[in-house]
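User: quick one
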Amino acid sequence: MAVLNVNGKAVDYNADPDTPLLWVLREQLGLTGTKYACGIAQCGSCTVHIDGAPVRSCSVPVNAVGTQKVVTIEALAENGVLNKIQKAWVELDVPQCGYCQSGMVMAATALLAAKPNPTDADIDEAMTNICRCGTYQQVRAAIHAAAKA
Amino acid sequence: MTIQTSLGRRGFLVSGAAVAGGFSLGFHLPFDESVAHAQAVKELNAWVVIHPDDKVVIRIARSEMGQGTLTGLCQLVAEELECDWNKVTWEYPTPGENLKRNRVWRNFSTGGSRGIRESQQYVREGGAIAREMLIAAAAKQWNVPSAECSAANSTVTHKGSGKTLTYGALAAAAAQLEPPKEVKLKDPKDWKVAGKPLKRLDTVDKVTGKQIYGMDHTMPGMLNATVRACPVIGGKLKDFDASKAEKMPGVKKIFAIDGNAVVVVADTYWQARTALEAVTTNWDIGDLGKVSTATINAMLKEGLDAKEAFVGNKAGDAQKAIDGAAKKVEAVYSFPYQHHVTMEPMNATARYTADRCEVWCGTQNGEAALAAASEAAGLPIAKCEVYKLMLGGGFGRRGRSDYVRQAVLAAKEMPGTPIKLIWSREEDMTHCQYHPTTMAKMTAGLDAQGNLVGLHVRISGQSILASLLPQNLVNGMDPIAFQGLMASGVEAAYGYDIPNLMIDHAMRNPHITAGFWRGVNVNQNAVYMECFIDELAAAAGQDPLAYRLKYLKPKWAAVLKAACDRAGYGKPLPEGRFHGISQVMGYGSYVAGVAEVSVSPDGQLKIHKITAATNPGHVVNPAQIDRQVAGSFVYGLSAALYGEITVKDGVVEQTNFDTYNVMRIDEMPDVETVLVPTNDFWGGVGEPTIAVAAPAVLNAIAKATGKRVRNLPLMNSDLKKGA
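Assistant: Done. Structure below.
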């Protein structure tokens, strides 16, 4: 049994030390909002925050996390109140199938924390997440809307 | 009609709970409040359930996979029902219930952009019938004629007295009444809910992580599994050695299924995957190991000049006209295999016992998944059930039930234990039913004025029907190979009126499975026709728009003109930028696009702007059409720029996003959607626009560089000056 700090709580898990954080979150902690899509840090569907930075959890061995603070999509809303990015996402009806959107929201939240008024170039650089439905135009608009909110 | 209440509670709760967000495992608790509540509330008809608190549950048979069909269908039902849109929620009926109830929900299949256009009539009738029953219930209670009562905003009002009753108060009584035999549907001119840019019904859970997809499904006692099928599609498993893997942590069982795959079942997916890597396998691939992209291309090239071909569209005598023409123009195009790459890899959860088999999965065709479960389980269909979950992308891939079959076969090895079978991205990438590969030889005759007097389009390549549905071939011919080039019909008809025309197909079928891929055969056929018409305009020294308008039929021409007008086609563009145009009719709708691109001297392509016009007949939700159109350019341009599956030694070479690239946000052009509905038919919107993406961009590139790219994907062409 080992311990992780996830969404503000110390949680126990039981997995081989090189198991990717993604699968510990999904299978041990029941946090299925973080998605498996590529497993090689290409698509960003598994993005979580580790000590505030966006990280692709499919490519982080769980034993490398240590005492760092992991935040997943499930903990972005506080007391049921969506964060600025989530609100903008709802307002602009961004998701289509939605499978990549947890990762998109996590990446955009981290972007806005680092750069409160991101330019289009900042968005291009930070938002390398893949969406196959093609929500990119709405993603860009929603990030700008959240920055202004 | 009698009121029926036999709906599968379990199935409804699964989907209903997924929608509500909380309580995703509701079906584990058979005596919770939801069950008691659900049993107390009787449906008004198959489509509509109204709860005492006025909540309206609309049942949706088609699958939501991002395209917005569930919101659009709910709008259509709600419009006729005259209910408060804010009270609307939805649920999926199960395919098993559909069969038990004489297919009351009709077709579950969700593909071909058919969700709304094919079911609009009967879902609107479902809403209208429910409304009339609610009015009748109120009239009965007040002892007044129904004609004196009206319904609006979930309330029935009696005109004379001003008395009102809410739908929630009336639903139980209404459910006891005979439904009217006939109802009159509203004129779309009078729509208040349909036709409006309403928000989707499934957004909030998708931004909080609560939405449950097939991949997220879990059950008590469930084990996780993963699979490795023969890397050569069609190959067989000779033998395997699991002695090392069996001893690895969490592993429960390792076995072969279907004679072509090995499955590892373990406590967790990661354990199963790790153990599968330690399983050694020997495959019997026969001569398929000799197949490569080069051998496939040689096979297709031979078909370009083959004597025999299926004729799909014919007028006059093309050969004679071309032979006698003042000028002959010829070009050969090619289009590769492509992968859907849904974000969510294939997966399904199955539980099998000797007398029941249940499956939980995302599927584009619940009834096909049910049939596949029944066949794999060896149980009658009545003893099987499929519970549909949200799809993390479909694009045609989840219309096929191969992953359902595998999950059931795996569950059969461990009766009573729910097994979630997950494909790795690598397994998914290499075991698809791919967008078919084809080539086309385009031959045209022009007269002295450049007029098109004869055209021969010879397609050579793979048939989807031959691969997936051979029973649907017509005397050996695959009619859908001609999508977008068909002689007539409301589905995918050719827009040009050319006096001498021959469009034929030399079917050449490699062993790689071909299947439906968003936009299907309209995509490559549009590249062939819409690029070649630009080549003909160039040969005639005429403008591509003016040249097209000489031959296009009115509805095709109108939408192209609308796109060009909005884009400012023909007006000066910023230095170095060029317009390319294209149009097509597909999935019942007329669409056109104008691409504005630049190409730097070192060959860097930049797609600045796309202007896309759509005539879908009736518009059910303009905001969702806007998103489908913008998304279509991501899908279509990803394919045009990067989409290519290649084969070596019989095996698909691409394995993940590192070898099968797709567009990111930095390449996304600004897409402007222009809606030009004529309100006289029902067309689809999820797919048609895909087809105009590639030809519009290729035509713009030709203008920018003078180079005509005829082979996709674009990444294989050097656009550098002088290259």
